[in-house]
């Protein structure tokens, strides 16, 4: 069978988006259908094509077997239909990920596939907690063990003696419930009861938490702390290497979960910088630009052309190319209203003129922008004077972005909302309303930061309680406010 159908069994890494491999990211971007697990960071679903079908395969306890069969069937079905299918799993697909069963089903059905490894939680979570799983002075071996079994009691069936004696560092997966049993077995079979143990919950994510102890004390420490799965239990002397807090937990914005309001398709540099500082950032809603139909207008006839967004710049040059219009025949001066549009123009070797010249009244002015701005006739005329308007594109919301938003909210991962503009208040609130959320409900758990007085006014009139208005509408001011307001400890 060769109808283009192909299945990728992909490891998504332990949580932090940046820990995906380049190959995994490419698979996600190509997918026609994506089947993902509960432990996969919902944020990476934002990398799919706008029309990609998303299928959630969260496990239903007790119905595990049936679920897995149903998943195998779906992989075969979509692969046979000629689709690019991505089966996305937390960590590495071969480590307690049942990839063998899925690969077998695909082999049987003659559907082509490949397996993309990922960083497994036992290593990723340990590293982000500041612990190397091996160390020349403390550990010469590392073992990955399940802390759970499919039997009635769920206790793992392991050669405890071999494990206790043969491995310096042990990572137990899915082991929180059986922690007491595990610690007991290891001690009974020869591990000293003083052996250090650490549990790392939600490793590599902003919600990362740890609880430390020894084989003797850990079960009690963990029950006091209410820490639950998903967590890795790391046993061995390496656990003592950890410095509290770890390099990851020391990042200035560690633990902050930010929803950054967005109004157009372009990605913001702000998000990137906040992430580097340790925050988790969800740019919402996710949008994409759909190019409008090419207009009849002859661009050679204008004196001034105003680009209202970087997308408009790109589309304008595409249209010129399509009509075989030489750029040297365009006599208009170019204007922009953002740095991003300016940079987009510079890529084509074009520079912008002073804005004041636009409104001199006697020239023919053309505005290029999205469909939304076209309706803002009053504002446009006030700012730019008499003009013609050509719609270059429509900024459309990708519907699956709401699913990502709902999952993040359920997991307590929306703690601060940042509104960079008045329009973003409108765009974000529309989505909230669509999901059936009230602003009062949002106010209970979330802090709101506005870039300036316009966004503040819009947020207040939409019903938000605004906590911070930035000193200046800049990335630097936002970072300062986030660090200062110590948002980490708030909410719930
Ligand atoms: N294939 C995955 C493991 C799946 S089994 C991998 O290679 O990582 C699910 C278990 O993995 C969870 O119960 C938990 O023990 C562990 N786990 C997954 N993600 C984790 C994370 N971010 N932090 C801590 N443990 C995690």
Give the arrangement of secondary structure elements:
Layout: E1 6-11, H1 22-30, E2 33-36, E3 53-56, H2 64-80, E4 84-89, H3 99-109, E5 113-116, H4 121-128, E6 142-146, H5 160-166, E7 169-173, H6 179-188, E8 196-201, E9 209-214, H7 218-225, E10 231-235, E11 257-261, H8 269-276, E12 280-284, E13 287-291, E14 304-307, H9 310-322, E15 333-336, H10 339-346, E16 365-370, H11 371-374, H12 377-384, E17 388-397, H13 400-410, E18 416-419, H14 422-434, H15 439-445, E19 447-450, H16 453-462, E20 468-469, H17 475-484
Parallel strand pairs: 1-4, 1-5, 2-3, 2-4, 6-7, 11-12, 11-18, 14-15, 14-16, 16-17, 18-19, 19-20
Antiparallel strand pairs: 7-10, 8-9, 8-10, 13-17
The structure holds S-adenosyl-L-homocysteine.
S-adenosyl-L-homocysteine binds next to helix 4, strand 8 and strand 10.
Description:
The protein is an alpha/beta fold. The chain folds into 4 domains: about 110 residues, Tetrapyrrole methylase, N-terminal domain (Cobalt-precorrin-4 Transmethylase, domain 1); about 120 residues, Methyltransferase, Cobalt-precorrin-4 Transmethylase, Domain 2 (2-Layer Sandwich); about 120 residues, Rossmann fold, CATH 3.40.50.10090; about 110 residues, Rossmann fold (3-Layer(aba) Sandwich). The strands form 4 sheets. A 5-stranded parallel sheet has the order 3-2-4-1-5, with helices on both faces. The chain has a 5-stranded mixed sheet with strand order 6-7-10-8-9, sandwiched between helices. Strands 12-11-18-19-20 form a 5-stranded parallel sheet, with helices on both faces. Helix 16 links the parallel strand 19 and strand 20. The longest helix has 17 residues. The structure holds S-adenosyl-L-homocysteine.
């Amino acid at each position: 069978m060769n109808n283009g159908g192909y299945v990728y069994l992909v490891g998504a890494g332990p949580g932090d988006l940046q820990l995906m491999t380049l190959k995994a990211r490419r698979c996600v971007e190509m997918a026609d259908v994506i089947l993902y697990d509960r432990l996969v960071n919902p944020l990476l679903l934002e990398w799919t094509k706008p029309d990609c079908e998303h299928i959630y395969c969260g496990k239903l306890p007790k119905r595990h077997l049936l679920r897995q069969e149903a998943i195998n069937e779906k992989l075969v079905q979509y692969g046979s239909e000629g689709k690019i299918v991505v089966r996305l799993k937390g960590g590495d697909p071969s480590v307690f990920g049942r990839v063998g069963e899925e690969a077998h089903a695909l082999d049987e059905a003659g559907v082509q596939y490949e397996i993309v490894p990922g960083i497994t939680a036992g290593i990723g979570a340990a590293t982000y907690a500041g612990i190397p799983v091996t160390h020349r002075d403390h550990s010469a071996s590392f073992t990955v063990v399940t802390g759970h079994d499919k039997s009635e009691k769920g206790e793992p069936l392991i050669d405890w003696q071999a494990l206790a004696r043969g491995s310096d560092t042990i990572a137990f997966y899915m082991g929180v419930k059986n922690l007491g049993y595990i610690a007991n077995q290891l001690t009974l079979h020869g591990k000293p009861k003083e052996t250090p143990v650490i549990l790392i919950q939600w490793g590599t994510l902003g919600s990362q938490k740890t609880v430390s102890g020894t084989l003797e004390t850990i079960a009690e420490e963990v029950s006091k702390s209410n820490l639950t799965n998903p967590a890795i239990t790391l046993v061995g002397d390496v656990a003592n290497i950890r410095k509290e807090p770890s390099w990851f937990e020391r990042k200035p914005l560690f633990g902050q979960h930010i929803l950054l309001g967005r109004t157009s398709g372009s990605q913001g540099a702000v998000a990137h910088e906040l992430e580097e500082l340790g925050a988790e950032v969800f740019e919402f809603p996710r949008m994409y630009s759909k190019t409008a139909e090419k207009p009849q207008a002859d661009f050679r006839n204008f004196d001034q052309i105003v680009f209202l967004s970087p997308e408009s710049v790109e589309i304008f040059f595409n249209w010129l190319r399509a009509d075989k219009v030489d750029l040297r025949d365009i006599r208009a001066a170019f204007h922009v209203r953002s740095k991003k549009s300016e940079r987009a123009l510079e890529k084509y070797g074009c520079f912008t003129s002073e804005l004041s010249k636009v409104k001199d009244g006697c020239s023919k002015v053309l505005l290029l922008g999205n469909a939304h701005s076209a309706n803002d006739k009053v504002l446009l005329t006030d700012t730019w004077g008499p003009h013609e308007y050509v719609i270059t594109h429509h900024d459309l919301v990708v519907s699956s972005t709401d699913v990502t938003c709902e999952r993040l909210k359920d997991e307590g991962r929306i703690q601060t909302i940042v509104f960079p503009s008045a329009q973003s208040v409108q765009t974000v609130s529309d989505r909230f309303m669509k999901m059936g959320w009230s602003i009062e409900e949002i106010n209970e758990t979330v802090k709101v930061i506005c870039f300036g007085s316009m966004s503040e006014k819009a947020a207040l009139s939409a019903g938000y309680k605004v906590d911070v208005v930035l000193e200046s509408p800049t990335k630097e001011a936002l970072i300062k406010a986030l660090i200062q307001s110590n948002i980490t400890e708030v909410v719930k």
